[in-house]
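Quick one: structure tokens for this chain, please?
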Amino acid sequence: MDKKKLSERDICSKYITPAVISAGWDLHSQIREEVSFTKGRIIVRGKLHTRGEQKRADYILYYKSNIPLAVIEAKDNSFSIGAGMQQALNYAETLAVPFVFSSNGDGFLLHDRTGLATITEQTLTLEEFPSPAELWQRYCQWKGIETAEARHIVEMPYYDDGTGRSPRYYQANAINKTVEAVAKGQQRILLVMATGTGKTYTAFQIIWRLWKSGTKKHILFLADRNILVDQTKNNDFKPFGAAMTKITKRHVDKSYEIYLSLYQAVTGSEEEQNIYKEFSPDFFDLIVIDECHRGSAAEDSA
């Protein structure tokens, strides 16, 4: 068989995929092939618009379903082993992935983006592809995730409703970085996301993972408009079910775990309107403020 006559797909199925599986990666839960993760940049010309080229990785490797670790870009054997590296690095930057591979079926070129490796780029044989445990250990070192408790928090999966819906790549980046920051003990985190990019869904997945891991037990979600609170409760936050309540009529029930509220429902100009004082200062171990730029983050805000 002349290897140079094989198509890129043949190189993947005969050489790259078997090498990755032999290193211990699970074909069904850790390896995804031909993954499209953007629809392409919108290009406007006058009154017309079109889509640019979508980004599609040949392989994305996951430690868990919510933790991408590596990108592999494949080329047919007429190319050099590192011919796909620049393309793979571009994908890796978008996906916030630290380990980048290029292959033509002869072996792998590995680029380590963590800055911790002695050699940034090195050539590996097909048999030397790293295992999930090895890359996960290096990932945790890169991120400063040092304790078993921190790893438990970071490894907690997303909520899955069974429909196949999962966070978009930029939502996943925001969720993972936030959860990692909390796992390392960071107390204040600001997420800046444009209108229409799924802020509430992103907040839900962050809260879900922190709640399910047992890291955060009483959570308050604040918004400044009633319709936002109701939409959140009835849509993205619906999976919290009976553990969730909306604070209304200045009534406090401390038997719940997830609380949704308007700023106006827990504070006021009169002392008796400040029902937040009925909660002890340490009752909520996580507070999420929607649209915080409206003034709720000001030093003198309630």
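Residues 149-294 form a domain with the Rossmann fold fold (CATH 3.40.50.300).
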